[in-house]
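Internal tracking record. Fields below are filled automatically when a chain is submitted to the structure queue. Please do not edit lines marked as system-generated. If the sequence contains nonstandard residues, flag them in the REMARKS field before resubmitting.
Queue: standard
Priority: normal
Entity type: single polypeptide chain
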Amino acid sequence: MRAVIMDSKDNVATLFNNVSAGDEVTVVSSKNEVLKKIILPQSILAGHKFALNDITEKSEIIKYGEVIGYATKSIKKNEYVHIHNMQSGKILKKEYMNKND
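SYSTEM-GENERATED OUTPUT FOLLOWS
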């Protein structure tokens, strides 16, 4: 099982394959360099993300070197990152802009 980090600023990695809880995942760079191996604590579908380190509530979620959203609660290292614990940066920006009209 493999996952990729596209930019050194990323704090999430994206899975190439479906994984089951307890599977070992090899995390690689965009140049296919092996960066580390980890054990995921939960099942996650291919194309989805997991945290590379602990992410505190309201912190940025970074993928491809860009902020894609914010943590809506604390996320533990290797935990699944999706709509249950993050919100899109575009949605937050829109909400902020609407409050300041």
